[in-house]
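Tokens in:
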């Protein structure tokens, strides 16, 4: 695989997932097909989609630039052959778990550290009634901090073997789709089937109440660390 193909593949993965996020947002906001699945009763603020768009677009371009640029530089170290199922699953699950744990602690830190909350994370929490694309309605530093989890997972694998490019693409795709899903404010039956997978409601409550529920994929981290949303806490 050439460097050009690595860059193009990365652009396709990130662009496709974000185009999906845009279309999903459009239908969540402006059509009635998802209305019966909505978690919150509060109506969306008028013109919110247009208002959110510039920061969303900036982040999409920055994410694509940083991801494609990093993989371009790392090309020599990557395994670009089509992976066996064991390499694919082994590396994917490993990076995924490290990223999910990292997300929990980084997210919790952005709430407990007053400076980080005020200067970085508060932008994302302007979304009290989230819709799918608000997953990327964040200060650019926030998703950069979020990417450190994936970087740690990738770096640890590099110690023993090359990381497969298809694993990185699949990881990027799953992560984006999951983030789009938990910001959708829609509880669509059948989408929360993996054990301990956090429901849309989990993160929705986090946005609505700003209290607990810091986990992204596995809600078990909040259970273990005793940071689940508690309606009696202030
Ligand atoms: Zn938060
Ligand atoms: Zn969020």
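Residues out:
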């Amino acid at each position: 695989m050439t460097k050009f193909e690595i860059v193009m593949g990365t652009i396709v993965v990130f662009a496709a997932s974000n185009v999906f996020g845009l279309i999903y947002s459009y239908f969540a906001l402006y059509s009635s097909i998802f209305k019966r699945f909505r978690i919150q009763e509060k109506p969306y603020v008028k013109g919110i989609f247009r208002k959110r768009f510039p920061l969303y677009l900036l982040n999409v371009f920055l994410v694509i630039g940083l991801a494609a640029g990093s993989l371009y530089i790392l090309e020599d170290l990557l395994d670009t052959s089509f992976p066996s199922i064991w390499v694919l699953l082994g590396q994917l699950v490993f990076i995924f778990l490290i990223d999910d744990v990292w997300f929990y602690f980084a997210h919790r830190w952005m709430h407990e550290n007053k400076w980080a909350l005020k200067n970085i994370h508060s932008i994302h929490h302007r979304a009290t009634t989230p819709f799918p694309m608000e997953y990327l309605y964040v200060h650019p530093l926030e998703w950069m901090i979020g990417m450190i989890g994936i970087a740690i997972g990738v770096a640890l694998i590099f110690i023993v073997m090359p990381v497969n490019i298809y694993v990185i693409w699949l990881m990027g795709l799953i992560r984006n789709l999951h983030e789009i899903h938990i910001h959708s404010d829609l509880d669509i039956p059948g989408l929360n089937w993996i054990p301990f997978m956090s429901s849309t409601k989990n993160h929705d409550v986090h946005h609505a109440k700003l209290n607990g529920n810091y986990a992204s994929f596995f809600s078990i981290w909040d259970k273990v660390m005793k940071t689940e949303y508690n309606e009696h806490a202030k």
